[in-house]
Amino acid sequence: MIDIHCHIVPDIDDGASDMNEALSMARLALDNGINTIINTSHFNPVFNYTSSTKLKKAVEVFNNVLSTNNIDLQVLLGNELYYNKELMHCLDKKEFFCLNNSDYILVEFSNASFPSNILDVVYEFVIRGYIPILAHVERYPSFAKNLKLVQKCIECGALIQVNSSSVLGSSSSSSQESVLDLIDNNMVHFVASDGHGSTRRRPILKNSYDFISGSYSKELADKLFFTNPQAVIDNEKIDLSEVYIPSKKLGFFKRLFSR
């Protein structure tokens, strides 16, 4: 599997605290069926996160350490962009990293103040030639539960990522309900770990892959964990021609027991 959202490179942000922690995360990911991770260290113009050439060098060093320790895991370069007004200026200056040097960017928002003009935000990314992936959308209830708005964002060119822990309800039943509503309506394009450590927010995907494969189909699971992430790495377009029509919402527990 391919994890497009993970904070595994050490001493960069609030992810792996040191090299030992990063190596523990790497072994855990590999044992869990993940062979490629896009490291998505936080990028926020307001805070002094490691970026640019220093981050690129840190990823190179970490891959060398993985090889030295016989850990057959590939870590690619990327950023998780925190949306604010300053970010839009950084887009034009190209002070951040796309996902594996592709047209795809991973964007997160404030949990407390999700932008009311999200369609305009998506449009601003798209007209600059980027394909925005909206990170862990289940964290923004006002957005994730508004299926028609999510649909419009997708039609505008955005893609949707949810966290593997939310698929399983590990974080909260409310987050799981939002994720399943989105999956029911073909509005999820990636499931990723958003891994930050080896004991908390771990880089694991297999259980959520098995859940989606069993509750929906293996074809869908492969799409969310293999095919679409590979398209990002290869900088290939992901087909969004499918019609998205929000369905009548079933009761959460009724739907779970009906699977």
TrEMBL record:
GO terms for molecular function: manganese ion binding; protein tyrosine phosphatase activity. Its EC number is 3.1.3.48. Belongs to the metallo-dependent hydrolases superfamily. CpsB/CapC family. It holds the Pfam family CpsB_CapC. It comes from the Bacteria. It is an enzyme of class 3 (hydrolase). Transmembrane segments: none annotated. InterPro entries: Caps_polysacc_synth_CpsB/CapC, Pol/histidinol_Pase-like. Keywords: Hydrolase, Protein phosphatase. It catalyses: O-phospho-L-tyrosyl-[protein] + H2O = L-tyrosyl-[protein] + phosphate. This is protein-tyrosine-phosphatase.
